[in-house]
Write a structure and sequence with these properties.
The chain has 69 residues and is mainly α. The protein is built from 3 helices and no strands.
């Protein structure tokens, strides 16, 4: 029985060595902070928040305006 276990252990070692030769090792871990970049979705633009009375009708959404009433 010891011979069978020894043979199995040797086979496992050979398979393990073959796997390491084929695939090498896993790449180094990357920290979460290095993978994520935070930036604003849209840049801040002053005219975006200014009131335009002539163009304000374009921002309303109602059925009457959609139907042209």
């Amino acid at each position: 029985m010891e011979s069978n276990q020894h043979t199995q252990g040797t086979a496992d070692a050979i398979e393990s060595a073959a796997r390491r030769a084929t695939f090498g090792q896993l790449p180094a871990r990357i920290r979460y902070e290095d993978m994520v970049e935070e930036k604003a979705a849209t840049p801040h633009h002053p005219s975006r928040y200014s009131y335009d009375p002539e163009g304000s009708w374009r921002s309303f959404a109602c059925v009457a305006a959609d139907l042209g009433l």
